Amino acid sequence: MFSFQSKWRYFFMFLGVQLVVMALLSREGYQKRVNYFIRIFRKPDHARNNTAVTAGVDVYANLLNLSRVHPHRDDLPYCPKKSPLIAGPIHVSFPSGLTEAVVQKKNPLVVRGGRYRPPDCEALHRTAIIIPHRRREHHLKYLLYYLHPFLQRQQLNYGIYVIHQAGNYTFNRAKLMNVGFREAMKEEDWDCLFFHDVDLIPEDDRNLYTCDSNPKHAAIAMDKFGYQLPYDAYFGGVSALAPEHYLKMNGFPNNYWGWGGEDDDIGIRVSLAGMHIVRPPLRLGRYKMIKHKLDAGNDINPKRFNMLAKTRQTWKQDGMNTVEYEIVSKDYLPLYTNITVNIGTEKGLKPLPKPPPTHAKALPSPAPKEPAKVPAVKESKKKSQP
Ligand code: UDP
Ligand code: MN
Protein backbone atom coordinates (compact mmCIF):
# COMPACT_ATOMS: atom_id res chain seq x y z
CA MET A 1 0.00 0.00 0.00
CA PHE A 2 2.73 2.36 1.11
CA SER A 3 4.92 1.59 -1.87
CA PHE A 4 1.95 2.00 -4.27
CA GLN A 5 1.22 5.51 -2.88
CA SER A 6 4.84 6.63 -3.00
CA LYS A 7 5.11 5.39 -6.60
CA TRP A 8 2.26 7.70 -7.53
CA ARG A 9 3.83 10.53 -5.57
CA TYR A 10 7.11 10.16 -7.52
CA PHE A 11 5.21 9.94 -10.77
CA PHE A 12 3.40 13.25 -10.10
CA MET A 13 6.61 14.91 -8.96
CA PHE A 14 8.31 13.82 -12.18
CA LEU A 15 5.35 15.11 -14.23
CA GLY A 16 5.52 18.44 -12.39
CA VAL A 17 9.23 18.87 -13.09
CA GLN A 18 8.61 18.09 -16.76
CA LEU A 19 5.88 20.75 -16.93
CA VAL A 20 8.09 23.38 -15.28
CA VAL A 21 10.96 22.61 -17.70
CA MET A 22 8.63 22.83 -20.69
CA ALA A 23 7.15 26.11 -19.47
CA LEU A 24 10.63 27.56 -19.01
CA LEU A 25 11.79 26.44 -22.42
CA SER A 26 8.83 27.92 -24.21
CA ARG A 27 9.01 31.19 -22.22
CA GLU A 28 12.71 31.85 -22.92
CA GLY A 29 12.50 30.82 -26.53
CA TYR A 30 12.96 27.20 -27.31
CA GLN A 31 14.92 27.93 -30.47
CA LYS A 32 17.48 30.05 -28.67
CA ARG A 33 18.20 27.29 -26.19
CA VAL A 34 18.48 24.60 -28.81
CA ASN A 35 20.88 26.83 -30.72
CA TYR A 36 22.91 27.28 -27.57
CA PHE A 37 23.39 23.54 -27.19
CA ILE A 38 24.17 23.10 -30.90
CA ARG A 39 26.81 25.81 -30.71
CA ILE A 40 28.61 24.02 -27.88
CA PHE A 41 29.27 21.06 -30.15
CA ARG A 42 29.97 22.96 -33.37
CA LYS A 43 33.55 23.56 -34.62
CA PRO A 44 34.51 27.17 -33.79
CA ASP A 45 34.46 29.47 -36.79
CA HIS A 46 37.82 31.06 -37.63
CA ALA A 47 36.12 34.42 -38.00
CA ARG A 48 34.60 34.33 -34.56
CA ASN A 49 37.99 34.30 -32.87
CA ASN A 50 38.82 37.93 -33.50
CA THR A 51 35.83 40.15 -33.70
CA ALA A 52 32.19 39.66 -33.11
CA VAL A 53 30.66 38.72 -36.42
CA THR A 54 27.09 38.24 -37.34
CA ALA A 55 26.12 35.86 -40.11
CA GLY A 56 25.43 38.81 -42.42
CA VAL A 57 22.65 39.54 -44.85
CA ASP A 58 22.15 38.34 -48.40
CA VAL A 59 24.03 40.83 -50.55
CA TYR A 60 21.03 41.10 -52.89
CA ALA A 61 18.49 41.78 -50.12
CA ASN A 62 16.91 45.25 -50.39
CA LEU A 63 18.05 45.81 -54.00
CA LEU A 64 14.91 44.16 -55.34
CA ASN A 65 12.81 47.28 -55.04
CA LEU A 66 15.01 49.48 -57.20
CA SER A 67 12.97 50.57 -60.16
CA ARG A 68 14.42 50.04 -63.59
CA VAL A 69 14.61 53.48 -65.18
CA HIS A 70 13.70 56.84 -63.78
CA PRO A 71 11.49 58.70 -66.26
CA HIS A 72 13.49 61.96 -66.06
CA ARG A 73 17.14 61.06 -65.55
CA ASP A 74 18.14 64.71 -65.92
CA ASP A 75 16.37 66.08 -62.91
CA LEU A 76 17.31 63.37 -60.46
CA PRO A 77 18.20 64.55 -56.96
CA TYR A 78 21.68 63.77 -55.65
CA CYS A 79 21.98 60.56 -53.67
CA PRO A 80 22.20 61.04 -49.89
CA LYS A 81 25.63 61.14 -48.26
CA LYS A 82 24.93 57.84 -46.56
CA SER A 83 23.19 55.27 -48.70
CA PRO A 84 19.98 53.91 -47.14
CA LEU A 85 20.75 50.55 -48.79
CA ILE A 86 23.82 49.89 -46.66
CA ALA A 87 23.22 47.09 -44.19
CA GLY A 88 26.61 46.08 -42.69
CA PRO A 89 27.95 42.51 -42.63
CA ILE A 90 27.29 40.45 -45.74
CA HIS A 91 26.98 36.71 -45.91
CA VAL A 92 29.72 35.32 -48.17
CA SER A 93 29.88 31.71 -49.32
CA PHE A 94 30.88 30.02 -52.58
CA PRO A 95 28.13 27.68 -53.69
CA SER A 96 28.93 25.46 -56.65
CA GLY A 97 27.05 25.83 -59.90
CA LEU A 98 27.10 29.64 -60.07
CA THR A 99 27.07 30.89 -63.66
CA GLU A 100 27.59 34.31 -65.21
CA ALA A 101 24.04 34.06 -66.55
CA VAL A 102 22.76 33.92 -62.96
CA VAL A 103 24.87 36.94 -62.02
CA GLN A 104 23.44 38.83 -65.00
CA LYS A 105 19.90 37.95 -64.07
CA LYS A 106 20.45 39.13 -60.51
CA ASN A 107 21.79 42.48 -61.75
CA PRO A 108 19.21 43.76 -64.23
CA LEU A 109 20.34 47.38 -63.89
CA VAL A 110 23.97 46.72 -64.85
CA VAL A 111 24.55 47.75 -68.44
CA ARG A 112 27.06 46.84 -71.12
CA GLY A 113 30.67 46.90 -70.01
CA GLY A 114 29.70 46.35 -66.35
CA ARG A 115 28.50 49.88 -65.76
CA TYR A 116 25.88 51.07 -63.29
CA ARG A 117 24.30 54.26 -62.04
CA PRO A 118 21.67 54.39 -59.28
CA PRO A 119 18.26 54.55 -60.99
CA ASP A 120 16.69 56.93 -58.49
CA CYS A 121 19.41 59.46 -57.69
CA GLU A 122 22.55 61.05 -59.10
CA ALA A 123 25.59 59.32 -57.58
CA LEU A 124 28.01 61.41 -55.52
CA HIS A 125 30.97 59.19 -56.49
CA ARG A 126 32.33 57.64 -59.69
CA THR A 127 34.42 54.55 -58.95
CA ALA A 128 36.26 52.28 -61.39
CA ILE A 129 37.23 48.78 -60.27
CA ILE A 130 40.44 47.49 -61.87
CA ILE A 131 40.98 43.74 -61.64
CA PRO A 132 44.30 42.17 -62.77
CA HIS A 133 43.53 38.80 -64.28
CA ARG A 134 44.69 35.63 -65.97
CA ARG A 135 43.17 32.14 -65.73
CA ARG A 136 41.02 32.88 -62.68
CA GLU A 137 37.61 32.78 -64.37
CA HIS A 138 36.17 30.81 -61.49
CA HIS A 139 37.15 33.50 -58.99
CA LEU A 140 35.98 36.29 -61.27
CA LYS A 141 32.48 34.82 -61.37
CA TYR A 142 32.19 34.94 -57.57
CA LEU A 143 33.70 38.40 -57.36
CA LEU A 144 31.17 39.72 -59.88
CA TYR A 145 28.35 38.01 -58.01
CA TYR A 146 29.25 39.86 -54.80
CA LEU A 147 30.77 43.09 -56.06
CA HIS A 148 27.92 44.30 -58.28
CA PRO A 149 25.27 44.35 -55.53
CA PHE A 150 27.86 45.54 -52.99
CA LEU A 151 28.55 48.64 -55.09
CA GLN A 152 24.86 49.18 -55.84
CA ARG A 153 24.16 49.22 -52.11
CA GLN A 154 26.60 52.12 -51.86
CA GLN A 155 24.74 54.04 -54.59
CA LEU A 156 27.85 54.50 -56.69
CA ASN A 157 28.25 55.28 -60.35
CA TYR A 158 30.69 52.49 -61.13
CA GLY A 159 32.38 50.43 -63.84
CA ILE A 160 34.27 47.14 -63.62
CA TYR A 161 37.38 46.61 -65.75
CA VAL A 162 39.13 43.25 -65.99
CA ILE A 163 42.69 43.64 -67.24
CA HIS A 164 43.63 40.31 -68.70
CA GLN A 165 47.30 39.55 -69.36
CA ALA A 166 47.66 37.94 -72.79
CA GLY A 167 50.07 35.10 -73.43
CA ASN A 168 51.88 32.81 -71.02
CA TYR A 169 54.79 34.95 -69.93
CA THR A 170 55.27 35.56 -66.18
CA PHE A 171 52.37 37.46 -64.60
CA ASN A 172 52.83 41.14 -63.72
CA ARG A 173 50.08 42.41 -61.43
CA ALA A 174 51.32 46.00 -60.97
CA LYS A 175 51.86 46.65 -64.67
CA LEU A 176 48.33 45.45 -65.41
CA MET A 177 47.10 48.04 -62.91
CA ASN A 178 48.90 50.77 -64.86
CA VAL A 179 47.17 49.59 -68.02
CA GLY A 180 43.84 49.56 -66.18
CA PHE A 181 44.35 53.09 -64.90
CA ARG A 182 45.12 54.53 -68.32
CA GLU A 183 42.37 52.66 -70.16
CA ALA A 184 39.67 53.36 -67.56
CA MET A 185 40.53 57.07 -67.41
CA LYS A 186 40.22 57.28 -71.21
CA GLU A 187 36.59 56.29 -70.90
CA GLU A 188 35.30 58.28 -67.98
CA ASP A 189 36.38 60.91 -65.53
CA TRP A 190 36.51 58.44 -62.62
CA ASP A 191 37.16 60.11 -59.28
CA CYS A 192 38.35 56.94 -57.60
CA LEU A 193 40.03 53.72 -58.75
CA PHE A 194 39.89 50.51 -56.75
CA PHE A 195 42.74 48.11 -57.57
CA HIS A 196 41.18 44.80 -56.70
CA ASP A 197 42.52 41.24 -56.58
CA VAL A 198 40.09 38.85 -58.21
CA ASP A 199 39.86 36.51 -55.24
CA LEU A 200 38.94 38.94 -52.45
CA ILE A 201 35.30 39.30 -51.48
CA PRO A 202 34.33 42.20 -49.20
CA GLU A 203 32.27 41.17 -46.21
CA ASP A 204 30.86 44.48 -45.01
CA ASP A 205 29.18 47.10 -47.19
CA ARG A 206 30.16 49.89 -44.78
CA ASN A 207 33.65 49.48 -46.27
CA LEU A 208 33.02 52.27 -48.75
CA TYR A 209 34.40 52.00 -52.28
CA THR A 210 35.12 55.72 -52.45
CA CYS A 211 38.40 57.60 -52.21
CA ASP A 212 39.84 59.58 -49.33
CA SER A 213 42.21 62.52 -49.28
CA ASN A 214 45.09 59.98 -49.20
CA PRO A 215 45.53 56.53 -50.77
CA LYS A 216 43.37 54.00 -48.97
CA HIS A 217 44.14 50.40 -48.19
CA ALA A 218 40.80 48.60 -48.02
CA ALA A 219 41.64 44.88 -47.61
CA ILE A 220 43.06 45.22 -44.12
CA ALA A 221 41.38 42.25 -42.46
CA MET A 222 41.51 39.11 -44.60
CA ASP A 223 40.46 35.73 -43.35
CA LYS A 224 43.79 34.24 -44.48
CA PHE A 225 45.62 36.57 -42.08
CA GLY A 226 43.19 35.88 -39.23
CA TYR A 227 41.32 39.14 -39.96
CA GLN A 228 44.34 41.21 -38.92
CA LEU A 229 46.71 43.48 -40.82
CA PRO A 230 49.75 41.21 -41.40
CA TYR A 231 52.25 44.10 -41.01
CA ASP A 232 51.99 47.88 -40.71
CA ALA A 233 53.10 48.82 -44.22
CA TYR A 234 50.94 46.19 -45.96
CA PHE A 235 49.17 47.61 -49.03
CA GLY A 236 48.09 44.46 -50.91
CA GLY A 237 44.80 42.98 -52.06
CA VAL A 238 42.48 45.95 -52.49
CA SER A 239 43.54 49.59 -52.50
CA ALA A 240 41.90 52.82 -53.59
CA LEU A 241 43.55 55.84 -55.16
CA ALA A 242 42.16 59.00 -56.69
CA PRO A 243 43.67 59.77 -60.13
CA GLU A 244 45.72 62.60 -58.64
CA HIS A 245 47.20 60.22 -56.03
CA TYR A 246 48.03 57.71 -58.73
CA LEU A 247 49.83 60.22 -60.91
CA LYS A 248 51.59 61.86 -57.98
CA MET A 249 53.34 58.56 -57.19
CA ASN A 250 53.98 57.84 -60.88
CA GLY A 251 51.53 54.92 -60.73
CA PHE A 252 52.76 51.44 -59.94
CA PRO A 253 56.08 49.78 -60.91
CA ASN A 254 56.21 47.97 -64.26
CA ASN A 255 59.12 45.67 -63.52
CA TYR A 256 57.88 43.26 -60.86
CA TRP A 257 57.44 40.00 -62.77
CA GLY A 258 56.06 37.08 -60.76
CA TRP A 259 54.65 36.87 -57.27
CA GLY A 260 55.49 39.33 -54.49
CA GLY A 261 57.09 42.68 -53.77
CA GLU A 262 55.01 44.93 -55.98
CA ASP A 263 52.46 45.72 -53.28
CA ASP A 264 55.21 46.81 -50.88
CA ASP A 265 56.80 48.91 -53.63
CA ILE A 266 53.44 50.63 -54.13
CA GLY A 267 53.19 51.24 -50.38
CA ILE A 268 56.68 52.81 -50.39
CA ARG A 269 55.76 55.01 -53.37
CA VAL A 270 52.83 56.42 -51.40
CA SER A 271 55.15 57.84 -48.75
CA LEU A 272 57.91 58.83 -51.21
CA ALA A 273 55.31 60.95 -53.00
CA GLY A 274 54.48 62.71 -49.73
CA MET A 275 51.23 60.92 -48.96
CA HIS A 276 50.22 58.37 -46.37
CA ILE A 277 48.04 55.26 -46.24
CA VAL A 278 44.60 55.55 -44.65
CA ARG A 279 42.52 52.56 -43.60
CA PRO A 280 38.93 51.82 -42.62
CA PRO A 281 38.31 50.33 -39.16
CA LEU A 282 39.42 46.69 -38.83
CA ARG A 283 35.86 45.50 -38.32
CA LEU A 284 34.80 46.93 -41.70
CA GLY A 285 37.78 46.15 -43.95
CA ARG A 286 37.04 42.43 -43.85
CA TYR A 287 37.53 40.13 -46.85
CA LYS A 288 37.24 36.44 -47.61
CA MET A 289 39.90 35.17 -50.01
CA ILE A 290 38.87 32.32 -52.29
CA LYS A 291 41.45 29.64 -51.56
CA HIS A 292 43.99 28.89 -54.28
CA LYS A 293 47.51 27.66 -54.90
CA LEU A 294 50.32 29.70 -56.47
CA ASP A 295 49.46 29.98 -60.18
CA ALA A 296 51.51 28.53 -62.99
CA GLY A 297 53.28 31.46 -64.63
CA ASN A 298 53.45 33.47 -61.41
CA ASP A 299 56.51 32.07 -59.64
CA ILE A 300 57.85 33.89 -56.61
CA ASN A 301 60.01 36.78 -57.75
CA PRO A 302 63.47 36.17 -56.20
CA LYS A 303 64.62 39.72 -57.01
CA ARG A 304 61.86 41.40 -55.04
CA PHE A 305 63.87 42.32 -51.93
CA ASN A 306 66.72 43.84 -53.95
CA MET A 307 64.22 45.79 -56.00
CA LEU A 308 62.39 47.04 -52.92
CA ALA A 309 65.63 48.34 -51.49
CA LYS A 310 65.94 50.60 -54.55
CA THR A 311 62.41 51.97 -54.85
CA ARG A 312 63.61 55.37 -53.63
CA GLN A 313 65.91 55.61 -56.65
CA THR A 314 63.61 54.02 -59.23
CA TRP A 315 60.07 55.27 -58.64
CA LYS A 316 60.38 58.38 -60.76
CA GLN A 317 61.93 56.50 -63.69
CA ASP A 318 59.54 53.59 -63.74
CA GLY A 319 55.78 53.81 -63.60
CA MET A 320 53.00 55.56 -65.48
CA ASN A 321 55.54 57.67 -67.36
CA THR A 322 57.17 54.59 -68.92
CA VAL A 323 54.41 51.97 -69.22
CA GLU A 324 54.31 50.30 -72.64
CA TYR A 325 51.69 47.88 -73.79
CA GLU A 326 49.55 46.77 -76.69
CA ILE A 327 45.82 46.33 -76.45
CA VAL A 328 44.86 42.98 -77.97
CA SER A 329 41.11 43.38 -77.53
CA LYS A 330 38.55 45.38 -75.64
CA ASP A 331 35.13 43.86 -75.09
CA TYR A 332 32.12 45.43 -73.47
CA LEU A 333 30.65 42.35 -71.84
CA PRO A 334 27.40 42.40 -69.88
CA LEU A 335 29.08 42.34 -66.46
CA TYR A 336 32.47 43.96 -67.10
CA THR A 337 34.76 45.51 -69.66
CA ASN A 338 37.47 43.05 -70.60
CA ILE A 339 40.76 44.45 -71.78
CA THR A 340 43.20 41.84 -73.01
CA VAL A 341 46.68 43.29 -73.18
CA ASN A 342 50.16 42.33 -74.28
CA ILE A 343 52.52 43.70 -71.64
CA GLY A 344 55.63 42.05 -73.07
CA THR A 345 58.49 40.79 -70.90
CA GLU A 346 61.45 42.27 -69.01
CA LYS A 347 63.04 42.77 -72.42
CA GLY A 348 60.26 45.02 -73.65
CA LEU A 349 57.31 44.74 -75.96
CA LYS A 350 57.34 42.13 -78.65
CA PRO A 351 54.42 40.98 -80.73
CA LEU A 352 52.81 37.88 -79.24
CA PRO A 353 53.89 34.69 -81.01
CA LYS A 354 50.33 33.56 -81.71
CA PRO A 355 46.85 34.83 -80.87
CA PRO A 356 46.61 34.58 -77.06
CA PRO A 357 44.03 32.42 -75.33
CA THR A 358 41.08 34.65 -74.64
CA HIS A 359 39.64 35.22 -71.15
CA ALA A 360 36.44 33.57 -69.89
CA LYS A 361 34.05 32.62 -72.65
CA ALA A 362 32.06 35.75 -73.31
CA LEU A 363 28.37 35.17 -72.92
CA PRO A 364 26.19 36.50 -75.70
CA SER A 365 25.22 40.06 -74.87
CA PRO A 366 21.56 40.56 -74.11
CA ALA A 367 19.59 43.18 -75.96
CA PRO A 368 20.81 46.64 -74.91
CA LYS A 369 18.97 47.81 -71.81
CA GLU A 370 20.10 51.38 -71.56
CA PRO A 371 22.73 53.16 -73.62
CA ALA A 372 26.00 52.91 -71.74
CA LYS A 373 28.33 55.88 -71.73
CA VAL A 374 31.06 53.88 -73.44
CA PRO A 375 32.20 54.06 -77.04
CA ALA A 376 30.85 51.17 -79.07
CA VAL A 377 34.17 50.26 -80.64
CA LYS A 378 36.30 47.22 -80.37
CA GLU A 379 39.90 48.29 -80.23
CA SER A 380 42.52 45.96 -81.51
CA LYS A 381 46.28 46.01 -81.97
CA LYS A 382 46.44 49.55 -80.76
CA LYS A 383 49.66 50.70 -79.23
CA SER A 384 49.37 52.87 -76.13
CA GLN A 385 50.81 56.33 -76.03
CA PRO A 386 52.81 56.46 -72.82
N1 UDP B 1 46.37 36.84 -60.67
C1 UDP B 1 45.72 36.23 -61.74
N2 UDP B 1 46.31 35.17 -62.36
C2 UDP B 1 47.49 34.67 -61.97
C3 UDP B 1 48.14 35.28 -60.89
C4 UDP B 1 47.56 36.36 -60.25
O1 UDP B 1 44.63 36.64 -62.11
O2 UDP B 1 47.96 33.69 -62.58
C5 UDP B 1 45.79 38.07 -60.06
C6 UDP B 1 44.54 37.85 -59.29
O3 UDP B 1 43.74 39.00 -59.36
C7 UDP B 1 45.06 37.62 -57.90
C8 UDP B 1 46.15 38.66 -57.83
O4 UDP B 1 46.73 38.64 -59.14
O5 UDP B 1 44.08 37.80 -56.92
C9 UDP B 1 47.22 38.41 -56.78
O6 UDP B 1 47.81 37.13 -56.92
P1 UDP B 1 47.67 35.99 -55.80
O7 UDP B 1 46.22 35.78 -55.53
O8 UDP B 1 48.44 34.79 -56.22
O9 UDP B 1 48.37 36.66 -54.55
P2 UDP B 1 48.14 36.35 -53.00
O10 UDP B 1 46.98 35.42 -52.81
O11 UDP B 1 49.38 35.75 -52.50
O12 UDP B 1 47.88 37.69 -52.40
MN1 MN C 1 45.08 35.43 -53.73
From TrEMBL:
Q: How does it sit in the membrane?
A: Single-pass type II membrane protein
Which keywords annotate this record?
Answer: Disulfide bond, Glycoprotein, Glycosyltransferase, Golgi apparatus, Manganese, Membrane, Metal-binding, Signal-anchor, Transferase, Transmembrane, Transmembrane helix
Q: Which family does it belong to?
A: Belongs to the glycosyltransferase 7 family.
Which EC class is this protein assigned? Answer: transferase
Name of this protein:
Beta-1,4-galactosyltransferase
What's this protein's function?
Responsible for the synthesis of complex-type N-linked oligosaccharides in many glycoproteins as well as the carbohydrate moieties of glycolipids.
Can you name the source organism?
Neogobius melanostomus
What InterPro entries does this protein map onto? Galactosyl_T, Galactosyl_T_C, Galactosyl_T_N, Nucleotide-diphossugar_trans
* Location (main, coarse): Golgi
